[in-house]
Amino acid sequence: MRKKMMISDLPHDLESEILSRVPAKSLAKWKTTCKRWYALFRDPSFVKKNFDKAGGREMIVLMNSRVYSNSVNLQGINNRFDPSMEVTGKLIKLNDSKGVDISAIFHCDGLILCTTTESTGLVVWNPCTGEIRCIKPRIFYRCNDRYALGYGNSKSSCHSYKILRSCCYYVDQNLSLMAAEFEIYDFSTDSWRDLGDITRDMIVYSSGVSLKGNTYWVSGSKEKGFFMRYFDFSKEVFGRLPLPYQSFNANHTAALSAVGNEKIAVLQQKILAMSDEMRIWVTNKIDEAKDLSWSNFLLTVDYDTKDGLRSRIYIVGKDFYKEVFKDTRGSDNNWPLLLCYVPSLVSIQENIPNKAEENEIKGG
């Protein structure tokens, strides 16, 4: 009788190529199938190849100091069926019996950087693998400092992940001149480095967004207007890019979002004036363009304000507008934060073998 071929009978390079096309969440469940797969799924070159081929995206939401998994259904939206969203459950990994409160989350290549409200410090978490890494401050921890997660690009397949911490404060009595302290945490050395003080007259007006390892914000001042500021984690320097609009009003809300792995979108709205207009621009490929160009479109939204500042989530498009979630339990001023991410197998541990997982490996 002819022997049935198994995937383990294939040449290793062909086996690796096939497995690199499988979603990371499935691979995470199979990593203890055999020793060869356990080693393969931790190989940085394989992890990068799998991430680059990934197509599916997932969402999480930060709300009431907790992180929740999020399910969004957009099927049939072009056929006039209403979109829907379901908060499917609290993510227990970061919300243990101690009740850790989370004030901010930041995403980079499948990793979530969580800022806690207490003196417990930072937590980096991979929702796909369940790995968690707690990071202690260099001197002391303040939850209102700004943090960003990124990596230095190199010729090797292994990214060098880093965290940028910034602390801003006024240095004059007129509150017109600001100074900022910057520190870098390097995962490979498990240590912080001081980048020094930078005197500046601008502040950050948006949550950061990560694209190809670098972080981008909307920044500026009332006197000089606003622009897109970025931090290059490879060179560890700041740079700036122009925005597609000019504004000198800090109340004009701006939000950044990554579009795929090559572009950035900016949404601008006069939110405090309850404006019903949203303007959205999308860049060309940032790393290929010397002169940044933007495409744009306008959305008009008829907001329902009868519930005041109660947290709500909408799905908005050119031809539709739908409230898909309303929080009836939280505080009025708790605005939810949604993150879209691609699951990844990247390891954030300190190269220490997981004995519990190794004991589960079945052989081969």
UniProtKB/TrEMBL annotation:
SMART domains: FBOX. PROSITE patterns: FBOX. It holds the Pfam family FBA_1. Residues 4-54 form the F-box domain. PANTHER family: BNACNNG10540D PROTEIN, F-BOX PROTEIN CPR30-LIKE. This is F-box associated interaction domain. The lineage of its organism: Eukaryota, Viridiplantae, Streptophyta, Embryophyta, Tracheophyta.
